[in-house]
């Protein structure tokens, strides 16, 4: 992954991410996941979207960066595609387990996963060497993930923390060899009427000179899928399995929303206008 990010800026910008749908290179400090904090996150990314993997959109543009012996990227596309597909499979499998755990048929979330708009981000965190390290240097601001679940790989540097809502303390999520972190996202929370909560988490920036890499795969669902609160209560299981009849009345904490609409809204609120805008504010 370091090979991707060590390319010259001009090269990285040949495949820019331009909107919430497509993938591509995301410049340093593009996002500010903690909207209230309002400071840019100290990371850059490369976002792999469906069109990078299955040519679904029949876009003639090759979204992948050029691979040459000189730039060391030969094999990047193939490896990244393979990773995306495997993560997608794992997400569906875990989705099946979650459905079963909720007393639903294991295929309950299949329609959600069908042609889903998943994004896999390769993330590179780094502190700014020109600046003194600051206590509040944040690699990724406090946030919840947006989709059903996230499958997160992190390297051995550490820095991921989850907020304990009861105490207000942060709990570190140490890197564990051979293990993924699975996050429950906002849409799973909405499906379960808040019974499952999407935990707030953040990433502390590594100290100057240290580089951290992670790969979250976000199961963000089919954009047209209407996410609605599963009807909880005694009749719940029966109603969902039969998919018929009127759902038992429950007090919904969330209104139905299309997965794509939710995702677009969250992306827009977390994205800064452009890295250039912020370059001036952090240069001092
Ligand atoms: O890099 C990490 O460990 C977590 C990243 C994350 O939370 C996110 O991108 O949503
Ligand atoms: Fe996250």
Tell me about this structure.
With 284 residues, this protein is of the alpha+beta class. Helix content is 25%, strand content 20%. The protein is built from 8 helices and 12 strands. It has helices spanning 2-5, 9-12, 76-101, 110-113, 186-191, 236-242, 259-270, 275-282; strands spanning 24-26, 43-48, 119-126, 138-143, 149-154, 160-163, 170-172, 181-184, 201-204, 211-218, 226-227, 257-258. The strands form 3 sheets. It has a 6-stranded antiparallel sheet. The chain has a 4-stranded antiparallel sheet with strand order 4-9-6-7, with no helix packed on it. It has a two-stranded antiparallel ribbon with strand order 11-12. The longest helix has 26 residues, at 76-101. The two termini are 30 Å apart. The chain binds 2-oxoglutaric acid (AKG) and fe (ii) ion. Residues 121, 123, 140, 145, 152, 154, 160, 201, 203, 214, 216 line the site of 2-oxoglutaric acid (AKG).
